[in-house]
Amino acid sequence: MTTKTAWNAQIDITEEGRKVTADATLIGKGGQRQLVGHGVARCNPADQNDPAIGDELAAARALADLTNKLLDNAAHDIESHTHQPVKGSLKS
Fold first, then answer.
1. Distance separating alpha carbons of residues 30 and 25, to the nearest angstrom
2. pTM for this prediction
3. pLDDT tens-digit map of 45-69
4. What is the DSSP letter of 83?
5. Could you name the domain of life of the organism this protein comes from (predicted)?
């Protein structure tokens, strides 16, 4: 038997001058908000401000934060089922 589950990610980006923040939200079953990752990018005052680059950096950092939170949750769930600490890294 094959089952298919869809999760969606939404990235909200806010630009405030030379600072960009991003929130990456993982949305699971039934539209429930599961996890949120955060990312920030700041433009060096000596550099030309290109908002597209800031958007990319902040979004990437938010997704990386979301990834780490999801891996931490998976490790916790494994430990809850096995009653043993997770050995090694889930990130590899």
1. 14
2. 0.85
3. 888 888 899 999 999 999 999 999 9
4. S
5. Bacteria
